[in-house]
Amino acid sequence: MSSEIKFGKLKFKRNGVLASGIMGLTGWSMVKVARCGAGGITTKSISKNIREGHKTPIIQVYKAGLINAVGLSSTGVANSNKELKIIKNNSDAVIIASIFGSTPKEFAETAEMLDNESYDAIEANISCPNVESEFGQPFAASSESAAKVTKEVRKATKKPLIVKLSPNFNNIGEIAKKVESEGADGITAINSVGPGMLIDINTFQPKISNKIGGVTGPGIFPIAVRCVYDIYKSVKIPIIGVGGIISEEDAIQIILAGASLYSIGTGILYEGLEIFSKINNGIDNYLKEKKLNYKDLIGLAHSF
Ligand SMILES: Cc1cc2nc3c(=O)[nH]c(=O)nc-3n(C[C@H](O)[C@H](O)[C@H](O)COP(=O)(O)O)c2cc1C
Fold first, then answer.
1. What does pTM read for this prediction?
2. Architecture of the structural domain at 5-54+75-193+216-303
3. Where in the chain are the domains?
4. Cα 140 → chain centroid
5. Does the active-site annotation cover 128?
6. Residues with CB under 6 A from ligand 1
7. pLDDT in tens, 39-74
8. pLDDT per residue as tens digits for the range 99-132
9. How many Å apart are CA 147 and CA 275, to the nearest integer?
10. How close is the Cα of 265 to the center of ligand 1, in Å?
11. Alpha carbons within 13 A on the beta-carbon side of 251
């Protein structure tokens, strides 16, 4: 994998993208991830204004991953611009600024307020609950609401726009197609699965303060593979595959399903920051053994 990996107009020097929300808080923590081998860095989702999250405990480990309800805490776009500059000045990774808002307009305003010099692409996190819908459903819940956010952010920025989808609603392929038709340049899939719940058998209470939260880590991997497979069938724009990847075999599977790049969040807890270089070496060896080019792997499972 010595050559660059193209993702639309973006060029990644290495495969492997840090997923949003994990190590993605301070500029220096993200620089460290890039120096350990990630070719792309996604920031924790940024909102226009400072937002407090849920009270602790917000994360709990279980046998196949994590459950979390951080509550969309954010230091706001002004502070985030300072952290983005640190990554830009100290790493060669592609920087993906993840944003969220409570309305399509707020998504667009956040995109406009980002410092253009300090990031390479925007990821619109439409998988979080919003206040505009009367049901409090995420914008990713339907093609219509996903399209509204994509359209507004598209008007607000000339940078490549990636939209992050949720596995928790029907027809992820159809939603991806709609988002593509509104001008998205790429898709990230998937966000956390659920919501789920864990209960403490000594206190008899749910283990996280919000009671319910998103499930991530190895247990959700087959769902991520299926979602990427469905999206690849529906769109021409490239996909970042994420959800439960902890090994080179997982990364290869998600690429065979149709992802151009793999991404890791919870897997860092299992394997440490070396996970990116370990997986990239593993992919190189696999390609040599199979006498294949990296490009040939993307979506290869669809030939059968
Ligand atoms: C603690 C935590 C915080 C997260 N925060 C965000 C976030 O701010 N924005 C977002 O789009 N996804 C967020 N995610 C979801 C991840 O980016 C990723 O989509 C999900 O965890 C599945 O990948 P994984 O199994 O490799 O962790 C978060 C996940 C975790 C575990």
1. 0.96
2. Alpha-Beta Barrel (3.20)
3. 5-54+75-193+216-303
4. 13
5. yes
6. 19-22, 44-45, 59, 66, 68, 70, 98, 125, 164, 191-192, 216-217, 220, 242-245, 264-267
7. 999 999 999 988 777 888 989 999 999 999 877 778
8. 999 899 999 999 999 999 999 999 999 997 666 6
9. 35
10. 6
11. 26
